[in-house]
Amino acid sequence: MQQTKETLLEIAQDIISKNKYAMVATMGKWNQPNIRALQNMKNDGFSVFYFVTRRDSKKVKEIKRHKKGTVYFYDKDRYISVTLHGNFKIEENSNYGISDIYKIAEHDLFDHVLLVFETKKMFVYSNYITTEFKMKKKKN
After folding, report:
1. Which domains does the chain have, with CATH numbers?
2. How far apart are CA 136 and CA 46, in angstroms?
3. Which tens digits make up the pLDDT trace of 125-140?
């Protein structure tokens, strides 16, 4: 059964909103992807996702070398996935939601950074078909 793009977008938003964690891939030192689970903090539709991590983490070092990455969400019961390809940027000394994730005191926030992921392409896999969505560039 073919699904409309509008239906797929609704399904994708549902999967993203119900996943507490996202699988995040960055490019490692030897051009090998490194994948880890990060708490899905917040997103602006499909175009921007926010994650918090420790400043001294391996993923921060990898993002500083290579900004491209992938964010992946999955619904195992429906066998549907959402894959986002794009670029990361690091916002230093940001306290966006950090105390909620790490349960730390407000004065200890500077050991963390905010990872901002900007989506370039999104792929939704459903009913054994992959549908591609290209993100529109935001006007300044």
Report:
1. 5-134 (2.30.110.10)
2. 10
3. 999 999 999 988 765 5
| pTM assigned to the model | 0.86
Q: 16: helix, coil or strand?
A: helix
The three-class DSSP label of residue 134 is strand
Residue 72's contacts (CB-CB under 8 Å, 6 or more residues apart) are 22, 23, 24, 25, 81, 82, 83, 84
Give CA–CA dist 6/129, Å, rounded.
Answer: 15
Asked if 96 contacts 114 with a C-beta cutoff of 8 angstroms, the reply is yes
Number of H helices, E strands in the chain: 3, 8
